Amino acid sequence: MKGIITAAGLGTRSGLNGRLRKELLPIYLKLDGNIVLRPILDAVYSRMVDHGVNDIAIILNPADEITHAYIRANLPEATILHQEKQKGFGDAVLQAKEFIGESDFLLNAGDGIILNDTAYSTGLEIHMKTGSSVLFVMRVEDPKRYGVAEVMKHNGYMVVESVEEKPLKPKSNLALCATYIFNSEILGRIDYSVQANIELTPAIDAVITSGRKVVAIEVQRDEWISVGHAVDYSASLIRTLDMAKRSR
User: Fold this and answer.
1) Residue 136 and residue 118 in contact, taking contact as beta carbons nearer than 8 Å
2) pLDDT at residue 228, as a whole number
3) CA gyration radius for the chain?
4) Helix residue ranges, H only, the chain
5) Alpha-carbon gap, residue 180 to 5, rounded angstroms
6) 22, 111 in Cβ contact below 8 A?
């Protein structure tokens, strides 16, 4: 299995105004018994490695010299790929098509992370056992702001029946966390003919429509943090510090 981290967005809602990429904003971690601050990108990368995913590509904007320098200095084993134009999350994933090949892959946006480490283990176990793609979801108050999953319980699993990006009439309140486990076939479902933003949710829905099983794992709302919004960043720091204090 390979790992893909997307970190090519401009971060217009982060309040950084292009001076620094949001993926380099620090959060608290506990490393070697000490509470430290590390860029969230570093935390996502380390989480993948901790779960046995060592062949990892990070998708960057080619003009992002600061993040390039950080990765070369601190994550030298990572493969750096580029998204030349800002055409959406699905397009960013497509930049790793050659890198992924026919491998399964763990995909994580570089500006968010699930604090519950067990969720990753559970997702990988389900994927290995069933071969299904796995989505991580959380219950939110305003699902119209998110990609939304419609699910049903079947044989002990939460099976995804459909997904939709920012729906006007959401079918559920289960929002997608930007963390996924996929088979490589999803790359062929991404519609790159779209002239505007190329989203990933239509490709996931196409996989479901084709008859492939997609499983959802629910995490608690406070177990997912994102640094993409300036006004929410202080809360993310508080939550990661609390998690670091409680971890072994």
Assistant:
1) no
2) 79
3) 17
4) 40-50, 65-74, 89-94, 97-100, 117-130, 201-209, 233-246
5) 11
6) yes
DSSP string spanning 74-109? Answer: H-TTSEEEE-SS---HHHHHHTTHHHHTT--EEEEE
What b-and-e string marks burial along 136-168, b requiring 16 or more CB atoms within 10 Å of the CB?
bbbebeebeebbbbbbeeeeebbebebbbbebe
Look at residue 11 and give its three-state secondary structure: coil
| 127: DSSP letter | H
**For 92-141, how does the pLDDT look when each residue is reduced to its tens digit (9 = 90+)?**
999 999 999 999 999 999 999 999 989 999 999 999 999 999 999 999 99
Backbone angles phi, psi at 153, to 5 degrees: -85, 135
Rounded-to-integer distance, Cα 89 and Cα 44, Å: 17
pLDDT in tens, 47-91: 999 999 999 999 999 999 999 999 999 999 999 999 998 889 999
Question: Which CATH code is given to the segment(s) 2-246?
Answer: 3.90.550.10
State residue 240's pLDDT score: 94
Q: How far apart are CA 238 and CA 234, in angstroms?
A: 6
